[in-house]
Amino acid sequence: MATITLSGLRHSYYPNPKGPDDYALKKMDISWQDGGAYALLGPSGCGKSTLLNIISGLLTPSEGKILFDDKDITQLKPADRNIAQVFQFPVIYDTMTVYDNLAFPLRNRNIDEAIVKTRVESIAAMLEVSDMLGTKAAGLSPDNKQKISMGRGLVREDINVIMFDEPLTVIDPHLKWKLRSKLKELHQELGATMIYVTHDQTEALTFADQVVVMQDGEVVQIGTPVELFERPTHTFVGHFIGSPGMNILPCEVVGEQAVFNGSPIALEGAIRTGWEGRTEIGVRPEHITLASRGLEARVKKVADVGRHNVVEAIVGDTSISVITEHDTPNQGESIFLAPDPVKTRLYRDGWIATERAGASQ
Predict the structure, then answer these.
(1) Full set of structural domains in the chain with CATH
(2) Single pTM value for the model
(3) Beta-carbon contacts of residue 320 (< 8 Å; ≥ 6 apart)
(4) Please, which residues bridge with residue 222 across strands?
(5) What SS3 class is residue 202?
(6) pLDDT of 105-143, one tens digit each?
């Protein structure tokens, strides 16, 4: 395994890019530690696959370097990088048995057959497919085919990183959680460096120790699942992660206060100065309570989602979502909303613009 470093990386599909908009990947500096579980999370077209192709060697970046440990591998061919990849659609040979599919990457490298047998049986046990080793792959269910595809990536011991490109997209929803859990178990058992690419926040947050959130070719935040939820550094992160996502409220800054719909809103800390831009308040539905005083609102609708209720209220022309487990109001009722100041932030042009209480960001 290896520590992976992306240093000053930037990529454009144009031969002579003239400005930031010509770059599919904006400049980034990232380091993934040996043995970590990481996710690239973002919507279609945000640059996840471009970045994955650069790491794997299918693309050469326009600028910057890729280091495995301290070795510059930017110009190395894919075959020389010792990377295993698991794709959206299972890559297996239907005419081969499960055993032969798992053995193929090792036999292709002329590994001794005794070692092949040991590795295949070990990975099969981890994947819970030992009873299928003699079965032709053509007869497997889609989730078991993807298990075997994963196993082909895991069976080698000489790899620097295992990369998963949307591996659960074609799996039935009721089976996804099983494979997600199994993948997490495998990471804990093997200690391999794993990078998981997905547009699904649940997959990213349940698998990864650190998540890289991307938008329009730019890394907008890197953090643990808790950090991304508790303190989004960009409104995109707040909106993209969470269900429903973070409330984004248009506001004005008057002196040292943020004012929404004529009411000053208490924030987590002091507002940063030094740049101008569009200002908005961000607060998650979980961090707003129904109160006896606060922002006056009218209930538009209430949705019972099982564990709690989601109240959609209107303040002026702005819709605000609130999550509550008790005291559910009725549609059309007038209520008061109280955002938690410790969890309420100002954003300027999308980026966080308040200091954390008691410390600087």
Answers:
(1) 4-230 (3.40.50.300), 244-352 (2.40.50.140)
(2) 0.86
(3) 247, 249, 288, 295, 297, 312, 313, 314, 337
(4) 212
(5) helix
(6) 999 889 999 999 999 999 999 888 999 999 999 989 888
